[in-house]
């Protein structure tokens, strides 16, 4: 088997370039207000198109496989927050308070959709279950993420009014999503035919929000007030968080007696966090905290890249192992020959 080599995708390079531009040329004054309004419009459009693309079957399906879906949701919204709190002694020693708040917010986010499904498919896992679980995670995250973030950050002083934040999220995220889904009979076919094109809408929205968030944070002194050791600590904490999540989901899949395809879906859907949902939510939940918003987003970006690199390697190993494993017919023939 050839060694796995990670090549940065264009979006990763664009994300890094956006951070660089925001660090050198942050928006100020009227430009900052204009970018803020533009990001709100882009976020609403993003969730409107998500609603138009997501089928009713994907939203309501998978009820029969409730044990797997509950396990994935438990990993996403219970395991991760516990891991974030368990890492507090280490995080408190190597991170700034703002960066640790970003780690806690990361732990409250829903799972990814596209990459969870893609890696589950590559590894030979249960793709329909991954579609249902990832979709349910993102819909529930609209309500659960603000509540979890409020509980995790209550003693940290990072989020004062989660109920008010839920109202803002419902208006900017859920309302456009519902409108898009109601218009799916007319827009669904168009959205499906342009799935690749609409992918750039997702990525463009993330880049726009990252530029606005980092630009405001840089103007407020993000890089000046964040020591290099804390940046390195962010990478270490994110890596530990991912390793613990991957190990826990693998162990849980075995303990719960899931089939191989279901264990793969649990591992890839239960160990990921969504940058596409997290960045817009951070903008709404931490509105008015310009200096802290960039630090809130930074752990998300680091974790996002790590999960792509590591999960791509794991998915390839699953696929290679499945290719080497004998089929049931071959195993039966081998048993007959042995007899």
TrEMBL record:
<dbReference type="InterPro" id="IPR038770">
    <property type="entry name" value="Na+/solute_symporter_sf"/>
</dbReference>
<feature type="transmembrane region" description="Helical">
    <location>
        <begin position="99"/>
        <end position="119"/>
    </location>
</feature>
<feature type="transmembrane region" description="Helical">
    <location>
        <begin position="204"/>
        <end position="223"/>
    </location>
</feature>
<dbReference type="InterPro" id="IPR016833">
    <property type="entry name" value="Put_Na-Bile_cotransptr"/>
</dbReference>
<keyword id="KW-1133">Transmembrane helix</keyword>
<dbReference type="GO" id="GO:0005886">
    <property type="term" value="C:plasma membrane"/>
</dbReference>
<keyword id="KW-0472">Membrane</keyword>
<feature type="transmembrane region" description="Helical">
    <location>
        <begin position="70"/>
        <end position="87"/>
    </location>
</feature>
<feature type="transmembrane region" description="Helical">
    <location>
        <begin position="159"/>
        <end position="183"/>
    </location>
</feature>
<keyword id="KW-0812">Transmembrane</keyword>
<feature type="transmembrane region" description="Helical">
    <location>
        <begin position="131"/>
        <end position="153"/>
    </location>
</feature>
<protein>
    <submittedName>
        <fullName>Bile acid-sodium symporter</fullName>
    </submittedName>
</protein>
<feature type="transmembrane region" description="Helical">
    <location>
        <begin position="229"/>
        <end position="253"/>
    </location>
</feature>
<dbReference type="Pfam" id="PF13593">
    <property type="entry name" value="SBF_like"/>
</dbReference>
């Amino acid at each position: 088997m050839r060694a796995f080599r990670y090549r940065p995708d264009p979006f990763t390079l664009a994300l890094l370039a956006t951070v660089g531009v925001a660090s050198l040329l942050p928006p100020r004054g009227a430009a900052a207000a204009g970018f803020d309004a533009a990001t709100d419009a882009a976020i609403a459009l993003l969730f409107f198109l998500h609603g138009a693309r997501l089928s009713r079957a994907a939203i309501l399906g998978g009820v029969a496989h409730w044990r797997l879906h509950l396990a994935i949701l438990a990993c996403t919204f219970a395991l991760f927050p516990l891991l974030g709190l368990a890492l507090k002694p280490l995080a408190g020693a190597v991170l700034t308070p703002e960066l640790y708040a970003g780690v806690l917010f990361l732990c409250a986010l829903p799972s990814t959709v596209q990459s969870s499904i893609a890696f589950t498919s590559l590894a030979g896992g249960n793709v329909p279950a991954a579609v249902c679980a990832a979709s349910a995670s993102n819909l529930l995250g609209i309500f659960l993420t603000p509540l979890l973030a409020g509980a995790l950050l209550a003693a940290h002083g990072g989020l004062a009014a989660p109920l008010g934040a839920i109202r803002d999220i419902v208006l900017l995220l859920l309302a456009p999503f519902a409108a898009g889904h109601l218009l799916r009979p007319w827009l669904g076919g168009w959205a499906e035919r342009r799935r690749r094109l609409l992918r750039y809408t997702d990525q463009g929205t993330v880049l726009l929000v990252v530029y606005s968030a980092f630009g405001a944070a840089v103007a407020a002194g993000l890089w000046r007030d964040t020591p290099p050791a804390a940046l390195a600590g962010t990478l270490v904490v994110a890596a530990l968080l991912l390793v613990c999540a991957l190990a826990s989901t693998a162990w849980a899949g075995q303990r719960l007696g899931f089939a191989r395809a279901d264990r793969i879906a649990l591992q890839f859907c239960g160990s990921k966090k969504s940058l596409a949902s997290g960045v817009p939510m951070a903008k709404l939940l931490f509105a008015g905290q310009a200096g802290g918003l960039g630090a809130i987003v930074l752990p998300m970006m680091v974790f996002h890249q790590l999960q792509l690199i590591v999960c791509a390697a794991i998915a390839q190993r699953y696929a290679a192992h499945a290719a080497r494993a004998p089929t049931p017919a071959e195993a039966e023939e081998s048993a007959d020959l042995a007899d």
